[in-house]
Amino acid sequence: MTTSAPIDLAHDDRSPARSPRRRPTVLLVHGHPFDRSMWAPQVTALTAAGYRVVTPDLRGYGDSEVAPGITTLDVFAEDLAALLDRLDIPQVVIGGLSMGGQIVMEFCRLFPERVGAIVLADTFPRAETPEGKVFRNGVADRLLAEGLGGYADEVIDKMVAPATIAAKPEVAAHVLRMMRSTSPEGAAAALRGRAERPDYCKLLTQLTCPAWVVVGEDDVYTPVSDAEYMHRQLSDSTLTVVAGAGHMPNLEYPDEFNAALLAFLETLPDA
After folding, report:
1. Tens-digit pLDDT profile for the chain (271 aa)?
2. What is the DSSP string of 206-244?
3. Residue ranges per structural domain of the chain
4. Domain 11-266 is classified in which CATH homologous superfamily?
């Protein structure tokens, strides 16, 4: 098992040059098997609009320490809380995509007082099925045996919509670079931990903070119906469906994604 002792996460902490308002800090959590570079378009747009943005590499990913074994979602969330402690940030708007969105939900469960608002992108709240547990552990075994090269080639047209691959090959190239450079041990540990995740459906009904739910129109992994379900469960939420996007609308259609994200953030009170 992976130890739950927090580790120092590699991260970027970008602040605007000047802002007339005390805007909330935004913490963005990447998905699997990516790294913090997936949020580059959002960091640029948010800092230009006056927001401080923190983007970490989760343990086992990017430049952060690799901890083989099993990394459950609570471990990821505790790492993030420890990072906020080190940066002296008491509360954030926390957003995540896919696995990152599930980490956001776990963070809300463990540290509700630190959450000012949430962003749930291309994710879903239900616990893993028995079949899903077998599948995730099987993929973990494969990644340890083969690395991520073959896996990345097989899933790229699910991570990114085929139309995006054709029209924006640089986006697909970025996603492939992230996947291929991910540590097999880190990715496998996350897959095994994610297979054991709890159900967050009831938690969503208990959250009172503002929420933005966003999904790619053509997302195969987390379809629009999953986003609509979360939107219904949350008491104060806005739903955006990004036309033409797959599982990574923030990279596929960054202008549309950023405009909706900034519109949501504008509804929040100053920090």
Report:
1. 444 688 999 999 999 877 667 899 999 999 999 999 999 999 999 999 999 999 999 999 999 999 889 999 999 999 999 999 999 999 999 999 999 999 999 999 999 999 999 999 999 999 999 999 999 999 999 999 999 999 999 999 999 999 999 999 999 999 999 999 999 999 999 999 999 999 999 999 999 999 999 999 999 999 999 999 999 999 999 999 999 999 999 999 999 999 999 999 999 988 7
2. H--S-EEEEEETT-SSS-HHHHHHHHHHSSSEEEEEETT
3. 11-266
4. Alpha/Beta hydrolase fold, catalytic domain (3.40.50.1820)
